Amino acid sequence: MNMSGAKRGSECLAVPERLVVIGGDAAGMSAASQARRMKGPGELEIVAFERGHFASFSACGIPYWVGGDVAERDSLIARTPEEHRARGIDLRMRTEVTEIDVEGQRVRARDVDSGDESWTSYDKLVIATGARPIRPDMPGADAPGVHGVQTLDDGQALLDTLARTRGRRAVVVGAGYIGVEMAEALINRGYEVTVVNRGREPMSTLDPDMGRLVHEAMEGLGITMVNDAEVTKILTGDDGRARAVVTDDAEYPADVVVLGIGVRPETALARAAGLPLGAHGGLLTDLAMRVRGHENIWAGGDCVEVLDLVSGQERHIALGTHANKHGQVIGTDAGGGYATFPGVVGTAVSKVCDLEIARTGLREKDARRAGLQFESVTIESTSRAGYYPGASPMTVKMLAERRTGRLLGVQIVGREGAGKRVDIAAVALTARMTVDQMTSLDLGYAPPFSPVWDPVLVAARKASKAVQQHP
After folding, report:
1. Using alpha carbons only, how large is the chain's radius of gyration in Å?
2. What's the CA gap between 247 and 228, in Å, rounded?
3. Beta strands in 266-337 (DSSP E)
4. Could you tell me if residue 111 is inside a domain?
5. What are 28-69's pLDDT values in tens digits?
6. Domain end position, chosen among 261, 287, 305
């Protein structure tokens, strides 16, 4: 057992173990809450550090709050610090951990407001430091009017800017999930939106042919798409605020700039402590989410790399679904139980206005990188029976391994009812089904919900035929 600062009880009394959690959002507080369910305060003391103003909030909901679909900021908060404390978790807000002493089993923390520092010892440690937005190293990137969107503080700062800004021109840099969702949010706010994207098409998580469908739909919504363009600087006006985004070929006026370039694992603390990191900069863990080589240190959420069950390779995927599952596993193990996190298949779904975008498994370039030979098919179908009112078009792309017929990946772009169909493929990937086996899946059918042959099964039939033709 460890002692920290003042003596932790008389020598004749048992001292509870101490679990220290770095990070107060999805993974960290899920781990703390689950550990508390496993053991009471007399057996396990839990101390959690969060450097921001909010804990246990939904970062995924920020674009919808900014866009007005979610009316109140507090709707995105799952549990307040006071609620965590009432459950026996010593959650210390506005406190940033600045150092991990692995050998001494302690962490140094600094009060963000006062600057005071202190050491806290641990018996067990959870690292849930999340990810940080990629901020380009170029002139003007830190100017007023330029916003990243990662925390509730970020979202509030953007809303404050929108309220103060007289102009109605917005430029979004990047066209991944954050970029397209923020483009929608700004359209909903009445802005003239330009999206500047360095890739061939928006949504690099899709193959370019499917990204093209997103491109066309976004332009149909009034969004100006600029692809194959690298932003070189952000110009500022006499007041120091952003006024334009500049690429090699053009200049785009902007009253507000939103950065949606993506995120990287926030692992500076872990790197300085000598903990193992993967090729993508995330912490490496075992199936129980323990940091490799360290029995009493766990890590989860956006700061870790996870096993891709399709390719067998490590990936960095920043999603709240994974973070909460990691936290449950960590809390169970740290609380004396046993749980594992087997890996992911890379499922994600998003939307821009009424366009739904989904993917799971591998893209073509992922399959090539993994050394797989595959067949790729694309089909057009509808969300409902063609004769039923409200049927809308849907495009499904499917990849299957050439030798075995094993499903490798699915991408879907369409309107209402398209996005969540990807879950069929996610289950099939996890079960390592072949596309031929998928054609026999007993899916629900009625004209208001799907054609007789669901679009995913139509794609599976076409993929199965392609595999059979290339044994």
Report:
1. 24
2. 10
3. 297-299, 306-307, 314-315
4. yes
5. 999 999 999 999 999 999 999 999 999 999 999 999 999 999
6. 261
User: Structural domain tally of the chain?
Assistant: 3
User: What is the model's pTM?
Assistant: 0.91
**Residue 337 is encoded by which pair of tokens?**
């139980």
**Measured distance between the N- and C-terminal CA atoms of the chain, rounded to whole angstroms:** 61
Decide if 303 is catalytic: no
One domain for residues 126 and 139: no
Whole-number pLDDT of residue 82: 97
CA distance 147 to 135: 10
**396-422 residue pLDDT tens:** 999 999 999 999 999 999 999 999 999
The residues near 225 (Cβ < 8 Å, ≥ 6 apart) are 175, 195, 197, 202, 215, 218, 219
pLDDT digits (tens, 9 = 90+) for 167-223: 999 999 999 999 999 999 999 999 999 999 999 999 999 999 999 999 999 999 999
257 and 142 in a single domain? The answer is: yes
pLDDT reading at 6 higher than 80: no
Among the listed residues 12, 60, 303, 353, the single catalytic one is 60
**What is the pLDDT of the chain when averaged over all its residues?**
94
The range of the structural domain enclosing residue 363 comes to 356-469
CB 263 within 8 A of CB 245: no
CA atoms of 53 and 38, how far apart (whole Å):
28
Residues 300 and 320 in one domain: yes
Which helix (DSSP H) or strand (DSSP E) does residue 403 occupy?
none
Nearest to 89 by CA among 132, 46, 60: 46
Inter-CA distances, 184 with 189, 213, 223, 416, 434, Å: 9, 16, 9, 16, 37
